[in-house]
Amino acid sequence: MLEVPVYNTEGKKVDTMKVDASVFGSAINASLLKQAVVAYHANRHRGTASTKSRSMVAGSTRKLFRQKGTGRARRGAIRTPVQRGGGHTFAKQPNASRKMLPRKMRRAALKSAILAKIVGEDFMVVDGLAMSGPKTKAMARIIKNLKIDRSCLLTLAEPDSNVYLSCRNIGDITVRTANELNAFDVATRQKMVVTSEAMKVLVGQEVGS
Predict the structure, then answer these.
(1) Of 21, 51, 94, 184, which has the most beta carbons under 10 Å away?
(2) Region label for 75, one of left (φ > 0), alpha (ψ between -120 and 50) or beta (otherwise)
(3) Whole-model pTM?
(4) Same domain, yes or no, for 79 and 145?
(5) 110 Rama class: left (phi>0) / alpha (psi -120 to 50) / beta
């Protein structure tokens, strides 16, 4: 059984939640987790950079002037890369670098990422996190009470516009619902904070489904 600390918004530990390790895959699959992070990185890359090569530039292929006797450096066609307006030597072309990751692998990677956070004591449950309105100052105080001074992933059970707006101007805080979680967000944030309602969602259903 895994023990997850439960805190209130004042930063005081009020309880400990016990979670069956099998819910999160029992063991951390580091190689799969790395594969998932690499795939998410690759899929965020748009790959739309494009420049014209020598063959794409408009211009004659005629030699500009004779090879010898002019006193100038030898020149070939006007489309050569050394000429102004010529093509690029190693032209960039659109490159689709997407990596496919099957659904079962994505789910398993997410479980490993969450399990790694729990084992590394970078996972906590917060009880009573509710905002009556967009209040950045109040949210910043809660984050300070929880002693979080690095990047943080805040997980909610359902979308909450007040929480989203309260976190929007606070750096290094990412807000996701339990159904939106992915291995990349979990693995690339130092801390993971889950509301008590969101924890019930994670434990009560298959993670990543």
Answers:
(1) 184
(2) beta
(3) 0.76
(4) no
(5) alpha
